[in-house]
Amino acid sequence: TTAFAQTVKPFKEGDRAVFLGNSITDGGRYHSFIWLYYMTRFPDKPITIMNAGIGGESAWDMKDRLDYDVFNRKPTYVTLTFGMNDTGYDIYMKDDAKELSEQRIAKSLESYREIEERLLAKNKIKKVLIGGSPYDETSRFNNFILRNKNNAILKIIDAQRTSAKKNGWGFVDFNQPMREISRKEQEADSTFTFCRIDRIHPDNDGQMVMAYLFLKAQGLAGDEVSSVSIDAYHSSVITHKNCKISKLKKSGSDLTFDYLAYALPYPLDSISRSGWGNKRSQRDAMQLVPFMEEFNQERFQVTNLEKGMYRLTIDNQFIDNLSSEKLANGVNLADYPNTPQYQQAAKIMYLNEERCAIEKRLRQYMAMQYVFFKHRGLLFADNKAALDAAKAERESHYLVKYLYTNYTQAMFPQIREAWQAEIDQLITQIYKINKPLTRLIKIERIKE
């Protein structure tokens, strides 16, 4: 992945970032995982990240909702990804697939030029184009493959890359790095794929890889949670980074000190969250990319200890028994989910997951508006005629069948306002409890 690293502007305090895209953005979590990084790494610099994805959309759909769904949300930062739906599906099973594919690409890029013009007019907004995740044509987890579909997506990505360079915008490519990871994994397991249901929608591990690639493109790799090195023999702090060490005391072979990091470790969810029949978790991505090494180092080192085994406790809570050699080499405290600081970060993760879940209800409302009601002259009507139209096609329309129940609630502005208020309260709570606390660390020699 190092070969594919690019540089885009990192978020700064107060940024309002809108992620515009299709179902991979709408139902995915990569933007939520990115926000979780900022919530824990920069606790005093709040930002806002907003999902503006709608399933099934192409560039020609996205251009029609720029005002309402993007610009009206007062963004300072906009990311845009498209291409999966633009390049079509059933056409790849036809004899004239190449010609049909070229027509779809041309239509997509023609619509993008209108989007590009609209974005160029917004001088104060930072723009980042994202080359979308791949359609997986190489995994052997089933026999159904749309051959050459990803090649069509790559042509759109090439145009995005050219546009970004011409306009001085940021560009991040998800496609090629994810294909490289897949190929490497498929050497050992031919059925490996990020998209276990349909070759299209990445599972939670793929979404985390996408978050990793975006953060890496923002130039954040190598920023440690904190780092501390202590010389036990001389009872002194050798180095410390992004943290404060105080009240260092030595008693025989034991050490105690107060530790205040200025960031929290990044918590990793081990649960396979719902969506597209997901079977993998965010934590599973750690097997695929060096996120822990590059983004989640809470380095703790104690040198010149008397040889032996030592008990590490934080706030009088047992963490691990470690040898003097291992402590001298240094350990990554972010690898320990039982530390008080990790548990603090886990609360933020779960609050963020709840925020994400509520946000998806609002996105389902937007999907009904733009995928169903817009084409029936009922965009944002939210009246009896709209409800009757949805009810009439509840069983026949693929989207209405899935979203009808949500719409019967979301059609009322008071419900949407209540959901947004709940989201706002969760964000307030996150930025209230994400401030690192001073921790008491003890290193006690275990008597043989």
Secondary structure blueprint with pairings:
Blueprint: E1 16-21, H1 23-26, H2 30-41, E2 48-53, H3 59-62, H4 66-69, E3 77-80, H5 97-120, E4 126-131, H6 149-167, E5 170-173, H7 175-188, H8 204-217, E6 226-231, E7 236-241, E8 243-251, E9 254-261, H9 291-295, E10 298-303, E11 309-314, E12 317-323, H10 324-329, E13 331-332, H11 340-373, H12 384-392, H13 398-410, H14 413-433, E14 439-445
Parallel strand pairs: 1-2, 1-3, 3-4, 4-5, 6-10
Antiparallel strand pairs: 6-7, 8-9, 9-14, 10-13, 11-12, 11-14
Summarize the structure.
The protein contains 14 helices and 14 strands.
Describe this structure in words.
By secondary structure, the chain is an alpha/beta fold. It contains 14 helices and 14 strands. The protein has helices at residues 23-26, 30-41, 59-62, 66-69, 97-120, 149-167, 175-188, 204-217, 291-295, 324-329, 340-373, 384-392, 398-410, 413-433, and strands spanning 16-21, 48-53, 77-80, 126-131, 170-173, 226-231, 236-241, 243-251, 254-261, 298-303, 309-314, 317-323, 331-332, 439-445. A hairpin with a 2-residue loop joins strand 11 and strand 12. The longest helix is centred in the last third of the chain and has 34 residues, at 340-373. The mean pLDDT is 96.
